[in-house]
Amino acid sequence: MDLQASLELALVNLTSPPVLAFVLGLVAVALRTDLRLPDAVYQATSMYLLLAIGIKGGVALREASPGDIAWPLVATLVLGVTIPVAAFALLRVLTPLGRIDRGAMAAHYGSTSLVTFTAAIVFLEASSIAFEGYVATLLTVLEIPGIVVGLLLARGLRGGGMGETLREVVFGRSVLLLVGGLAIGFLTGPVGYVRVEPFFGDLFTGVLTLFLLELGMLTGRQLSALRQAGPGLVVFAIVFPLLAGFAGVLGGTLAGMEVGGAMILGVLCASASYIAAPAAVRLALPEAKPSITLASSLGMTFPFNLIVGIPVYLLMAEAVGSW
Amino acid sequence: MTAGPSDFGSVTCLTIVAESVLEERLLSVIESCGARGWTVSMAQGHGPSHHGVSGIEGGNVRVETLVTEEVAARIWGALEKDFFPHYAVSAWAYDVRVARMARYS
Predict the structure, then answer these.
(1) Domain B15-103 has CATH 3.30.1330.10
(2) How many CB atoms neighbour CB B70 within 10 A?
(3) pTM of the model
(4) Which domains are present in chain A?
(5) In a mutagenesis test of the A interface, which of B27, B56, B87, B89 is the best target, namely the one with the most A β-carbons within 10 Å?
(6) Model ipTM over 0.90
(7) CB pairs below 8 Å between A and B: how many?
């Protein structure tokens, strides 16, 4: 892909309504505007996004053969276990953070971000680039191992208290809605999906836009914590997604995925969780400082991926795919 | 002469405001300490430690429970041991007069 086409891609991403709404959220906080999405609306939009992603993924999963999805699943599991270990190790080099905080960070970066994933899908659809519909299954698979590995790194095997945390992760609303949505989509198939398509398909980008407005405000409120973060954490929050994203793109390509699918796996690996992981980490590692993990995952990595990362991972997937 | 139920009595109203991720854990502690009921509502606010993840996870929860003095003491103990050191929690107690005292003792 030449430079002009790459710049056009970046522009398509930057001027998409969800990304612009995210920027509006940042501006609202900078101007100290009294704007916030009511909690109930925030919860409802997050439920809607999870269920919609699940249902659409389930419909696509029905059309995929087990042979198609086996290698991508293996690649996702391997990445889900190695990425938090890599994050834990790199943080030791780059930052003065202690073991508990590094484990908390590893849990966030090992897990994945629904909204970054969703923005990447909206971007691919807007650019008419094909991708495997079953990627929502990979999103679901990647949610859990990273959190577990991160907590184990922080606590060690004898840490105890993993039961409540595992329950929080596995039966928390993220995984429940994703898995439930996948089952609904799989069982109902394309015929059943047509009936809910106006709600879960046509309205999707609009709801995502509303959700990103709120996330922009949440991100803006994290920015004040950045000053305490130190240069090492800033470097990590930008460099690690690129490394993990490349690993995801490589894994997806080796597993036989299309360029769009490999790019999505890259996005999944590059993004850090800020819904499932913070709650699980808060319960299991109360000593960890959420201000650090959220400043990094939500304050830096999320906007970086949303604005710069998404087109970059596509370029990576195209480059790796043409090798 | 005052009209009303005859079984008025005094109990402790214990109010706990905490990060919403703690809701399930708090309720199970309160129940195991002997509370027989509670009211949970969402709350928003600002505290001195502001180190929670509540902005992401939907604010704070406010748990109110009417308990006897002994149960309140047990709940205080659990709060001091497992919650106060690590989490953004505010808790306070006051004596109240309730109707149908038998429900709380």
Answers:
(1) no
(2) 12
(3) 0.86
(4) 3-218+228-321 (1.20.1530.20)
(5) B56
(6) no
(7) 42
